[in-house]
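Narrative of activities, Objective 1.

The group set out to show that a structural description can be obtained from nothing but a protein's sequence at a throughput compatible with the screening campaign. Below is one input-output pair from the validation batch, recorded exactly as produced.
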Amino acid sequence: MVRVMAKEVGPSRVTVNCVAPGPVATELFFAGKSEEAVERFKAANPMGRLGEVGDIAPVVGFLCTDAAEWVNGQ
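Output recorded for this entry:
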């Protein structure tokens, strides 16, 4: 869907990208999960940990700047 939309609006210099980081250590993520479930999520990640908001915010911030004008449909 992102690539289709990127092709549709790209000629107008509008970029469309998707950030899908996986499990992130937030209150919403932890709600209702056992410690064992959280450990399974950590083990499934190649880095052996949950994502942090600080891992994602700079990427999203970059995509909102003019420096990212060549990044489209990703």
